[in-house]
């Protein structure tokens, strides 16, 4: 059993190595960066998947300074390569992390940007004592240090610092930028999207486009913000998303790495739990585990899995996008919560402002942010099969449904409605369902689309009854497709089948109720429940007309 401490919350490579903390070797990553043809690499990955640690590793590998960092790589994969002997400690490095750059306004964010640039220029104040800077260069350098530079001068900082470093070291520069899109996300949610996009376009273009002083540039983020928005004209850019096989094992833990980790800490018997809760991601065909959650589980004393990753960032954007959608989005979230699969186009670059007008971008955003996974190869062109990756992420969707209901109806009404259904009290179920309908949907929502109520009901069931029933919707059974089926985990309890019908002004609701119940019988929807040994089956018809509804059962 290893006695090494785990690097929970530590993303500084030097600290991990000097403190002799447990480290899963990803240093082959460095060899690929050196030998692959792109000058600039972009690695979009979900948060907490090792992006910052990998950039820190690159920094201590490449950076040329007075400190000998070669011993940090002893006994690691990169150590005995020719690339190590040629490139380790050879290059000046610019290292910027944007992961904490969030603010309520553009003015406030720009203050944070000037502080970030000041700190990086301050690491290189030795340049002021050299002949690498002209008098105007010195004045510019001082303006950054004093945080007096304006937006245009700050946008030029990446290029100018690389120029100064090249003149001093007579060696090209490595530029490392962590979580470049964090301020873009903040701008999108807080209302200064155009300002931050304009700044980042100028900042990155100046520093990375045709920069003769650049050896390699490596950027990380969650999304590839569309090329025309930020990476305009960067022909030397290589983008490796979680859809690509290249670099697919360098972010997150592979199954083999997780097995080794659990064995090293003598908790291998919890592998199945860890797998169920934290794996399921598909990066370029490789099964990947969430490293943050695996490390937290391994480091903790409790051996009951918890949603560690869920609590590390706000889900405001997810809530905004998912709950904005209409009937189709509700239906598809319901399918996902049933452990089902949806087929959607996936776009690997996104213009954030288009999220407000293009509902089809929601699924790409969820995939690249770690809230969905793709199950295999493309189906056709851009289409992929998508599903929830694991139990931890499923909790996020369940909490979102609870919040969605809470905005429209008191959760106790939903709980009372479903409890009545569970106990077979159809009279109370009808009363509570009417109350939920009145509060959940406006008359406009219901006009012509009573199925919205059906899908809202399915979502409620999936969350509030998921521990007691398998909830299924629109599945084949017998000779047709039922609307909703509740299959009890305990077969001694009653199963439930619900059929929904819309009735117009000229139709008799009672006749439509009878028709719906007859359909349940004739189409033999109960076959699946009976085959599972469930003897007591409650068959319910629900008929809608606007906000009016009627319920009947047999």
UniProtKB/TrEMBL annotation:
What domain of life does the native source organism fall in? Bacteria
InterPro entries found in the cross-reference section: AAA-ATPase-like_dom, P-loop_NTPase, PDDEXK_9
Q: Which SUPFAM superfamilies match?
A: P-loop containing nucleoside triphosphate hydrolases (SSF52540)
Where in this chain does the record put each AAA-ATPase-like domain?
A: 7-231
What PANTHER family does this protein map onto? AAA-ATPASE-LIKE DOMAIN-CONTAINING PROTEIN (PTHR34825:SF1), CONSERVED PROTEIN, WITH A WEAK D-GALACTARATE DEHYDRATASE/ALTRONATE HYDROLASE DOMAIN (PTHR34825)
Question: What name has this protein been given in UniProt?
Answer: AAA ATPase-like domain-containing protein
Native source species: Desulfonema limicola
